[in-house]
Design brief:
This protein is mainly alpha-helical and 74 residues long. It is 62% helix and 0% strand. The chain is built from four helices and no strands. The chain has helices spanning 7-18, 28-31, 35-50, 56-69. Helix 1 runs parallel beside helix 3 (35-50). The radius of gyration is 13 Å and the shape is globular. The two termini are 18 Å apart.
Length: 74
């Protein structure tokens, strides 16, 4: 993570690290150019991954199937 984060960017990074992920996911790094976008996208991702109505194993399977469909490397 670059040391030249603005206060707003640093606040978002701190929120993400303190959350369920525990680290900043790679796709979030460019989102940090607009801290509010990063905050909202991270919350959506956290909701879909960790607070889904699906069991954890099915949630991970759904994530992998979607990633494969879109040829995602993340």
């Amino acid at each position: 993570m670059p040391q030249s984060l603005s206060p707003a960017q640093a606040e978002v990074v701190a929120e993400v690290v303190a959350g369920k992920r525990g680290k900043v996911p790679a796709p979030m790094i460019p989102w940090l150019r607009t801290p509010e976008l990063a905050r909202r996208a991270q919350r959506l991702g956290e909701l879909l991954r960790f607070d889904s109505a699906l069991e954890p194993e099915l949630s991970e399977l759904a994530i992998l199937v979607c990633a494969r469909h879109w040829n995602s490397h993340h």
